[in-house]
Write a structure and sequence with these properties.
Keywords: Transferase. Pfam families: DAHP_snth_FXD, DAHP_synth_1. InterPro entries: Aldolase_TIM (IPR013785), Class-I_DAHP_synthase (IPR052899), DAHP1/KDSA (IPR006218), DAHP_snth_FXD (IPR041071), DAHP_syn_2 (IPR006268). This is 3-deoxy-7-phosphoheptulonate synthase. By secondary structure, this protein is an alpha/beta fold. The chain has two domains: 62 residues, Alpha-Beta Plaits (2-Layer Sandwich), CATH 3.30.70.1140; 263 residues, TIM Barrel. Strands 7, 8, 9, 10, 11, 12, 13, 14 and 15 form a nine-stranded parallel beta sheet that branches. A four-stranded antiparallel beta sheet has the order 2-3-1-4, covered by helices on one side. Helix 6 packs across helix 7 and helix 10 runs parallel beside helix 11. The two termini are 36 Å apart.
Length: 348
Amino acid sequence: MVVVMAPDATDEDVAAVVAKVESVGGEAFVSKGVVRTIIGLVGDIDSFHHLNLRTLRGVADVHRISDPFKLVSRQHHPERTTVWVGPAGHQVPIGPDTFTFAAGPCAVESAEQTMEAAAMAKSAGATLLRGGAFKPRTSPYAFQGLGVAALEILADVREATGMPVVTEVVDARDVPVVADHADMLQIGTRNMSNFSLLQAVGRAGKPVLLKRGMTSTVEEWLMAAEYIAQRGNLDIVLCERGIRTFEPSTRNTLDLSAVPVVQASSHLPVIVDPSHAAGRKDLVVPLSRAAIAVGADGIIVDVHPDPEKALCDGPQALLGQELRDLATAVRRLPPAVGRVDAAELVRA
C-alpha cells in the first residue's frame, strides 16, 4: 500500500501518517521526489484500511499496489516523472517531455583529457557530463580509476563548462564523498544488486542513475530501484545498457524493448547507453537513433579525445565524424517524436 501526500503537505503531516501506521505495527518508508512525497507501507493491509488514512491532513490519495515494486510503480503515479539533475540555478531535466544527452569519457584519466572530452561533448549538444572516477573492471589488472582525484577533476570541469556531473559509486563507504562532488550518482551494471549500496545512495539526497544488471530481468531492475526509493529517494533514472546473451558480435545485446516495457510499468525516466551495449563506436550512432525512435528519455555515450590511448573502453568512444553524426541525430530526431531538447528547459 502507498500513501500519496499532497504537494503542500508539511513534514508534520508526513510524521502523522508514519505515526498512525506504526501504531498498528506497520512500517512506513518515506520517499521524496521533486514535486511529491509518497509513503510505502509494509505490514497487515487490513489493519491499514481501518486507519482511514485518506482523512488525515495532507494525504492526497491511498493506493493498494499489486506490483512487487510499489514506490516506483505507475499504479499510484500514472504521470511519468521528470528528474532534475544539477545544482540550483542550472538543473537539467530527464523525463517524458524532453530528450537529454549525456556524454563524456568512460574514465577520468587527467584534467586535460577530461576538459577536452567535456568540450567535445558540449559542442555535440550534451547537457550532462559523464565520467568515471571509480571503475569496477572485470580484470583486477585493468585501470581502476583515479578515485577522489578524479572527483575533484570532474568538479573543476563542471565549474568551467556548466555541465552537471554524473559519476559511478561502487562502494557504500564512498557515497558521501561522491555525493559531495557529483550531481548524480550512478550505479553500474555490476552493482545493480548490491543492496547495501542501493540503500546508501537512496539516503544520499542526490539523483541516481541506475543501470540494468547485465543478466537482470526488468522486474529485478525495478526492484533494485525500489531499494533506492524505499530509503527516501524518488529521483531515479533507469538506464538500459544491454544484457548478456549468447550473441558475440556485440559486447552486450541492447534490449530496446525494455524502454517501453519499463515506461508502461514505472513512472521513472528511462535512458539508453549504446556505448556499453555495443562496445563498438560504429554502432553507437545507429543504436542512438533507435533509442530515440523507441521513446527513450535520453542517451549516455562515451567520448574521448584520443580513443586509441584510452585507459578504459577506447573502442566504443566517439571522436570526429562519429560524434558529428551523433550530434546531428540528437538535434534532428527527438522533435520528430515530440521531444524537446533538455537544454531548452534547463531550470535556473
